[in-house]
Amino acid sequence: MIILGIESTCDETGVAVLKIIEKKDGQTNIKVLANVISSQIAKHKKFGGVVPQLAAKLHQKNIILVLEKALKLAKITASKDLDKIDLISVAKGPGLIPALLVGVSAAKTLAWGLKKPLVGVNHMEGHIVSSLLETNEKRKTKNEKLFELPALALLVSGGHTQLVLIKDWLKYEILGETRDDAAGEAFDKVAKMLGLGYPGGAKIEELAEKGNFKAFDFPRPMAKSRNYDFSFSGLKTSVKYTLESLDLKLKVLPSIRNTYISDIAASFQAAVIDVLADKTIRAAEEYKIKTLIIGGGVSINQALRRELKKSLKEKLPTVKFLAPEKEYSNDNAAMIALAGYFRFKAGEAGNWKSVQADAKLKLG
Ligand code: KG4
Ligand code: ZN
């Protein structure tokens, strides 16, 4: 079947086309025919973060262009063979309501006009299934056994930090989440303090590779608490005070500035990774999971991947580690189309009336 996915929860306008072939032997082939993303990052940069009204305007401006491009890549001619599309899947939340309304309205209009089923999915479920997508590859996988259960997902993005337990297929229990800033948000705020621009996660990682992660002893917030919640705002403040106390030195000795900046980036990144990895591995042990999944923009971070793999190897060598390719780590519509396929199989698709945007949608 052919699935059209639409993503507009935040600052990426995405449209994807997936082809899913269900074989008689229970195998499922997932093929990404198109995954087009129009990022608005450059437009939000000067405001230091995403401005919801601007995001909505840009989604409105771009969504049909992105749709046209995706259809073209998938070799679907808009004027004659839109009927090839079997299902429309849209991210209905969580996200910024002005942004969500654009994608959801486009999806409803398509479903109404084409008389095709529509399914609204949770953006975070998209991140959970994103590691099942492979660039230009057919992936053979046994239906319904895509992850060996129980599985644990660490979802880390600009808006979310969650540890999610999956005991049953498509059923989620949030074990813990951030009480203040999301992990990506902390990366972005610290990057701003260091003058690295927005979004800053990738730049911090690049500098951290050159820095000494032991140079500054930043706090590991909530590392010792027995729950699975996170907090990153104290860490961010600690970086701020460190920078203020170094200010004089940085002015007097500009030659050592770069070393300091790299050391701060490395020490900050090490603190975030320590907390994320510690809690993830602790939950993995407690719930005796078989698969560890990571997803979201921060999951691209190679130091985080290395740390998780190392800890699994030492403590839980039989646990399978699944991480999305770069193209599917950031917000994209291919993951929304795939989550929509699973929900369709679970009997959850309806007509155009069945989906409403929900900014605070919870995983359940
Ligand atoms: O999932 P995503 O594309 O959008 C949201 O739903 O938020 O995640 C974007 C976030 C940003 O905060 C960005 O700074 C962070 O992912 N990020 C990284 C890296 N690349 C992107 N954080 C740490 N290390 C990276 N290499
Ligand atoms: Zn996301």
Structure description:
The chain has 364 residues and is of the alpha/beta class. 43% of the residues lie in helices and 20% in strands. The chain contains eleven helices and eleven strands. The chain has helices at residues 41-44, 52-73, 97-114, 123-129, 183-193, 201-210, 233-252, 254-286, 302-315, 326-329, 334-345, and strands spanning 2-7, 12-22, 27-39, 87-93, 118-122, 139-142, 151-156, 161-166, 173-177, 291-295, 320-322. The strands form two sheets. Strands 5-4-1-2-3-6 form a six-stranded mixed beta sheet, with helices on both faces. Strands 9-8-7-10-11 form a five-stranded mixed beta sheet, with helices on both faces. Helix 4 (123-129) crosses helix 11 (334-345). The longest helix has 33 residues, at 254-286. The chain is globular. The structure holds 5'-O-[(R)-(carboxyoxy)(hydroxy)phosphoryl]adenosine and zinc ion. The site of 5'-O-[(R)-(carboxyoxy)(hydroxy)phosphoryl]adenosine has 19 residues, from helix 5 and helix 6.
